[in-house]
Amino acid sequence: MANKKEKLKFYKLPTAPSYSIDTPVTVIRGYRNIHSEFTQYDTQPFTATAADLDSNSFPGDAPVFFFSNVSPYSSLEFVIDGVFEAYDRSKHNLAALSSKIYILETNSIGTFGVPYDDYPSTEDLVRKPYIDSTFKETLKSITFYVNPTTIRIRKKKFFQKIRTRAGWVFQHWGPDIGEINLEGTTGNITPPPKIQVGKIVGFPVLPQVVEEIPTESNSSALKAFKTLEQWYDEDQNDQSQSSSIGQLTALEFRGRIYVGHFAEFNFEERGTHPFQLFYQLKFLIHYDAGALSEATTRAANQIIRNDETLKKILELKKAQSEDEIS
Prior knowledge:
Blueprint: E1 7-15, E2 28-29, E3 32-34, H1 35-38, H2 48-52, H3 63-66, E4 77-80, E5 101-106, E6 111-115, E7 128-131, H4 135-138, E8 140-145, E9 148-154, E10 157-164, E11 167-175, E12 178-185, E13 194-196, E14 199-200, E15 203-204, E16 208-210, H5 220-234, E17 246-253, E18 256-270, E19 273-289, H6 292-299, H7 307-325
Parallel strand pairs: 2-7
Antiparallel strand pairs: 1-8, 1-17, 3-4, 4-5, 5-6, 6-7, 9-12, 10-11, 12-19, 13-16, 14-15, 17-18, 18-19
């Protein structure tokens, strides 16, 4: 493996913290209807009532009439949950399907659906994660060419052993927390050399090679590494868990998705290998899955922090603030 350049991809999966909702969050699946496609059905008659009088009747309202409360209409995208074909006015009655219709909103975390029946009154509304064929592209992700020298994936099961007169008895409780340990190097992080032509008293001199100090702006390798370090710093911090939608980190390696969180992140520079960063990364596995959609479905119902943990954190923060004031 030392001579093979492995590619790891990290995703941030949306999940609703257990302390922020009363019921588990489910995901939305279906065809993503975009404005440029469904507006072909914005033709007369606009309403289903008028359509009943037409020999070429439609079973429902035109989208422009049905979504009259959605603004701006020009950027509207919607999903009919469970319907995996594009909206067709001759087949789909929007009014009859309103309970399954979700208005899509995209932010820095991912794409989520707002129930149409509750739109636009979205206060205290839990947005449901949306999964489609392009779900990987809607998630926040980074691709990291880590040049690992060692990858250790450790899985174990949680069990309890009891000594009896008849011998040992084992009580099995399912899988325990697994680990992924990565060790390796970023490779050379120096930017390509620049050729600089100077002048002396107005006359050009011979071109000179100028070596720049690696920065995030001139070294893509260093930028990727710093982004991963930022993800480690942000993973499970207060800010990422403060909204109604939280996050779990997923690691994709050789077609397998490992969902969990970063536990340790160390790196060093060595004088014998200038302009390389040697790293050690520990990733704790909550669970693993064969596909990103399967991993996200479970992440949407994953418990991040319970009420007692959150209560304790708030108490400690309050005590710290009082000490600073006094």
